[in-house]
Amino acid sequence: MVALTCFGTIVAGVRCDGHVYYARLPVKGYFRIQDFFASTRPFGTPLAPICLQYFLTVFALVAFPAEDAFNFLVDLLSYPNLVGFYFTIAYYVTGKSQVFHAAIAIGVWLLRRRRILVGLAPSKYRARNINVFIYLLSALFLLIMPWVPPEPGHGDVSFWYATYCVAGLGVLALCGVYYWIWIVFLP
Q1: What count of other Cβ atoms lies within 10 Å of the Cβ of residue 177?
Q2: How large is the angle between the packed helices 66-78 and 47-62, nearest 10 degrees?
Q3: Could you tell me if residue 128 is inside a domain?
Q4: Which of 44, 86, 87, 172 has its CA 20 to 30 Å from the CA of residue 56?
């Protein structure tokens, strides 16, 4: 039963993420090779995005020792749960990053400050500063704690315990480089 549930989740994730991230976004012009990814030929489905999703998922599963692959991917999902869209490149993740949770909390305060400087009235729907502060603290806690080494013999993988942290932040850095090339350098 567990295997069938996992299989169904994987199939749904590959189909949904392949369609949304690789088929709908190219239609809007977010990728350089948008004609290839936006095509629904020959079967009326986004075959190229689904195949890309499949091969990258298989790569993520094959790249690590069998006993560690599952734990690594679960860890990778949880730490920075990296940026839904960005980390679909390596695994179909549909979450938000703690990096972005922290940025949202800081952004709330920056937007409030800008509204005051411009002379706009405060919004009717406001989160209390204490709530935003607690939200920021929880995001920072979830970013920092995975770097603290576990007690000897209590790690869930046979390789370095923070590999998933480095992998997640590395993907985020690659996405930043891609953004810089696409938005700043090329135009």
Answers
A1: 10
A2: 120
A3: no
A4: 44
Coil vs helix vs strand at 187 = coil
Residue 89 corresponds to which amino acid?
I
DSSP secondary structure letter of residue 162: T
* Cα 107–Cα 111–Cα 115 angle in degrees, nearest 5: 170
pLDDT band at 31 (very low <50, low <70, confident <90, very high): low
| Any domain includes 31 | yes
Note the pTM of the prediction, 2 decimals: 0.55
- CA atoms of 10 and 70, how far apart (whole Å): 13
Two tokens at 2?
A: 């567990």
| Domain carrying residue 11 | 1-63
DSSP state of 120: P
Residue 35 domain flag: yes
Q: Report whether 34 contacts 26 (CB < 8 A).
A: yes
Compute the C-alpha angle 19/68/54, nearest 5°: 20
* Residue 23 to residue 52: CA distance in whole angstroms: 11
pLDDT computed for residue 19 by the predictor: 59
Structural domains in the chain (count): 1
Q: Does 142 fall in a domain? A: no
